[in-house]
Amino acid sequence: MQISEGKCDDIKHQFISFLDDEVPKYSSQLDGFDHTKEDSHIEKLFHQMMASKQCHEKVWFVVKNVLILSHGQASVERGFSTNKQISKENLQEHTFVALRQVHDHIKSVAGAINVEITKKLILSVASARQKYMAYLDEQKRKKEKQVVSLKRKSLLEEIEDLKTKKKRLESDSAELAKSGDEFLRTAEDS
Fold it and tell me: Is the model's pTM score more than 0.85?
């Protein structure tokens, strides 16, 4: 929300007028305001004090937009606290996500007692061990496949090394044979 410079002066004057004229009328309500009560809403009080008066409509516009703003990162911080509570050492990502989903569901239904136990849930729990064993087998196969591919890769690298050594030795022996022939010719000539 952006407000032009000219409007800022008008809003400031309206706010000063609001403080002088309206606040004393509502001083008892402001002093007795309890934000902890569930039915107390500061926006209703401000609406009652400002919006009904035409002379404070610009101030009400600013207050309304300020009240709409987020009140911080409280929900994000609560999420971090929850994550800290459910985290354990060596917890894999998908396990952590599953724990967080269970925690959020229990919280959304207001406690573990209120979780509805359906037939689908019972079947899922009954097959959990089989799913876990299948997961372990799949991880074992992936690991074996990775080991085989690493062995194959190392063998291919070793073959390439041997080929380069062979080429180097062949070129060295050809060079030595050539220099030996030259030495032989110079020895025969002399």
Answer: no
